[in-house]
Amino acid sequence: MIVTVDQTNIFEAAAVHSMSWRESHRSFCAPGFTELRTPERQVDCLTRKMLAGSRIYMLVEEKPVGVVSVTGSLIEDLYVLPDRQNMGYGTRLLRYAIGKCKGVPTLWILENNTRAERLYRKMGFRRTGRINPSPGGLKEIELALE
Asked: Are 120 and 109 in contact (CB under 8 A)?
């Protein structure tokens, strides 16, 4: 089931976000940097996003397994716990997020995130040609649903 994140379940969503983000960034971020992404810090981050208008959703299957946020037509923060990846949860969250968009769904990925790009391409997203520099020398690449 996918639920809306609010103050009653934000810590669970932040814990999923924290653990998943750390694992996905471990190979190219300094260890000290990834360890800063604690659940407590992510509560603050997710709270700020919600106050700015983002809607955050959490996929729960007995326990929380994934999160995603939507702001207008921008999909962000799609994370699934490392031990629950490749089980269809990311696809489920992405489909849900697409349905919540208020226009053509778009998202940004780091250029080295080939696993995520494979999922997004399978779902019909294509590169738009827009690129932003990102800290650490990597680039962010925009994709939009065709």
From this structure: yes
Does residue 33 surpass a pLDDT of 90? no
The residue written with tokens 């040609």 in the block is 129
In the DSSP assignment, the letter for residue 131 is E
d(CA 143, CA 104): 10
**Taking phi first (over 0 means left), then psi (-120 to 50 degrees means alpha), and beta for anything else, what does residue 98 get?**
alpha
Q: Write the DSSP string, 66-125.
A: EEEEEETTEEEEEEE-GGGTTSSHHHHHHHHHHHH-SSS-EEEEETT-HHHHHHHHHTTE
122-133 tens-digit pLDDT:
999 999 999 998
Nearest to 95 by CA among 70, 123, 126: 123
The CATH number of 2-145 is: 3.40.630.30
pTM over 0.70: yes
* CB distance 140 to 111 below 8 Å: yes
The DSSP call for residue 35 is H
